[in-house]
Amino acid sequence: MWPFRRRVRGGSGRALRRTVLVLVVAGLLVAGFLLFPLGRYVYEDVRDKLGGTREISPTGVTASASAPGHPAGAAFDSQTNKYWGAPALGASLTASFGTPFRLVGVVVHTGVSKEPQEFRRGARPTRAELIVTTKDDKVHKKTVTLNDKPGKQETRLGISDVVSVQLVLREAAGQGEGRPIAVGEIEFFKRT
After folding, report:
1. Helix and strand tally (H, E) in the chain?
2. Which residues of the chain have pLDDT under 70?
3. Model pTM above 0.85
4. 97: nearest Cα among 161, 191, 169, 168
5. CA distance 109 to 103
6. What are phi and psi of 26, to 5 degrees?
7. Could you tell me which residues are beta bridge partners of residue 127?
8. Which of 12, 13, 46, 94 has its CA 20 to 30 A from that of 130?
9. CA distance 14 to 10
């Protein structure tokens, strides 16, 4: 009978339980603080993939240089038979936006035409750098490899509060005398 009728003092174990509870809560707070940026990134990425997108047009477009007859605005006119012609590698095209938005993706149409034979006759970019600036002046850089074939080429980004995007041409195919590097169309997509 003795081991089963043992008396337990009031309050025994309460201090241990409280200490364990305080340590667990403190551990969760520290983990939440340390993992917040990663958690926010995962949350926004899931929203990007599950949510819809729609195209957004820039409010301003500038180019560091353009070939005669192929202005910067031709890359944003919704037609791929007109193009921005860069006279040399290193030329850039900058699109600015009036209100910050979540940039989900960029679509680039390279070359002078969608027709394969006509496409091969012109110079077209094969590698470019996207430089995205946010409203707090943070700069995000991404190198994009473009396929040497006609048609749209998509790049997913997922950057919040975007105010400008710059496309800098780094490599091209089909270059020759009198052949500007052709970017047929650039489209920006935001999350809806």
Report:
1. 2, 8
2. 1-12
3. no
4. 161
5. 18
6. -65, -40
7. 145, 171
8. 46
9. 9
Q: What pLDDT is stored for residue 176 in this prediction?
A: 83
By the 10 Å C-beta count (0-12 exposed, 13-18 middle, 19+ buried), 150 is classed as buried
Closest-CA residue to 75 (of 48, 107, 44): 107
Q: Which tokens in the block code for residue 28? A: 């969760």
| 44 conformational bin, left if phi > 0, alpha if psi -120 to 50, beta if neither | alpha
List pLDDT tens digits, range 16-45: 888 999 999 888 877 777 777 777 777 788
- Structure-token match 């919040």, residue found: 160
Contacts (Cβ under 8 Å, ≥6 apart) of 160: 44, 100, 102, 103, 134
For residue 107, which phi and psi values (nearest 5 degrees)?
-115, 130
Phi, psi of 79 (to 5 degrees): -130, 135
Q: How far is CA 139 from the centre of its chain?
A: 11
Q: What pLDDT does 5 receive?
A: 62
Give me 104's structure tokens. Answer: 């989900």
Distance, CA of 71 to CA of 87 (rounded, Å): 11
